Amino acid sequence: MSRKRSSIMSDALKEQISQELGFAGTLHKEGFGGVSSRDCGNMVKRAIEMAERNLPGNNKTY
Fold this sequence. Notes:
Blueprint: H1 11-21, H2 24-30, H3 37-53
């Protein structure tokens, strides 16, 4: 039984973060199968930091 998951992060956000973290080339060439689990984890961590920063009333700086 196969179900397609909907993505929470847009492709544009994934592209932006992969460029910031320096693995955009690997992502383009090999897809996420070629990206290390550490880099994927760092991508999620960065996305969470960005989301927290954009919460109303949040004045944290990273």
